[in-house]
Amino acid sequence: MRSLIDIGDFTVDEINELIATANDIIAHPQAYSEKCKGKKLASLFFEPSTRTRLSFEAAMLELGGSVIGFSEAASSSAAKGESVADTARTVSCYADIIAMRHPKEGAPYVASLNATIPVINAGDGGHNHPTQTLADLLTIYREKGGFENLTVGFCGDLKFGRTVHSLINALSRYSGIKVVLISPDELKLPSYVKKDVLAKNGIPYEQTGDLEGAMPTLDILYMTRVQRERFFNEEDYLRLKDSYILDMKKLKTAKPDLSIMHPLPRVNEISTEVDSDPRACYFKQVLYGKYMRMALILKLLSEAGRL
User: What stretches of 115-260 show up as alpha helix (H) in DSSP?
Assistant: First the structure.
């Protein structure tokens, strides 16, 4: 059974196919309005979410399907001690496809091994968030026209930022990519990502703590929040949470066609004054996420013989 657990599960050609489908959905929404009629998405969110959960639900509803599920672990049998494996087996009896977010790394993978329907990883701890990466890729494609020869700056929490890890993995398969890693020392990109993804694929990268110094070279700036829920103590979080705040002053030396991205939610790492700048793309990302999830649902249901 085909699932999406890691962005590496899909080839570059398959990602390009999803982008093409998403673009067609944007152009011809009515043609897709009943593609999933009679099909059910199980939305299993063991961790709080606004954009990802509602995006999946909106995606299925706009395809003519329906949604069942829960939005917190406390309202599921996990509160009684049920395993992820048993939850996956059970839900497979009720739905056609599962979208799962879980605070533990690897939980959606365990679900995929036990489910009899496709499972989509909607975020697992600090590990992966492949559908956010699909949203990011569609945003980059529509803003830049492609993925080659771009300098991409990742700023903020690069240690726990699963969206950063997934996007770096995806972009490493395209030619001419350069990466600038902007973070405090305590939140640097994990060494395994640098070794297994960047170095392995020959992607040139630099590490710096200076956002303004890096700004003039960037084609894309991917901001992230410092995530309170990933810290072991409040003191470290409070010390680091305001490490980088993007405002119009810091954008003075940026390229006129810079694309500013953020997986959201935003706390205060991007000043609201930036929202009206034409280079701000983060709310476009939200919308593009829905279209990419629509394309993904169609692909997985079709491959599973359920469409």
Answer: 130-144, 162-171, 191-193, 211-214, 234-240
- The partner residues of 182 in beta bridges, in order of sequence, read 155, 208
Cβ-contact 171, 200 below 8 angstroms: no
Domains (range + CATH), the chain: 7-128+289-303 (3.40.50.1370), 131-276 (3.40.50.1370)
- Rounded CA separation 302/138 (Å): 21
**Could you tell me the CA-to-CA distances from 102 to 1, 39, 44, 73, 111 in Å, in that order?**
20, 23, 8, 9, 11
Instruction: List the pLDDT tens digit at each of the 307 positions of the chain.
Output: 899 999 999 999 999 999 999 999 999 999 999 999 999 999 999 988 889 999 999 999 999 999 999 987 665 666 667 899 999 999 999 999 999 999 999 999 999 999 999 999 999 876 778 999 999 999 999 999 999 999 999 999 898 888 898 899 999 999 999 999 998 888 899 999 999 999 999 999 999 989 999 999 999 999 998 755 554 556 655 665 556 789 999 999 999 999 999 999 888 899 999 999 999 999 999 999 999 999 999 999 999 999 9
| Amino acid letter for position 218 | L
What number of helices (H) and strands (E) belong to the chain? 10, 9
Whole-model pTM?
Answer: 0.91
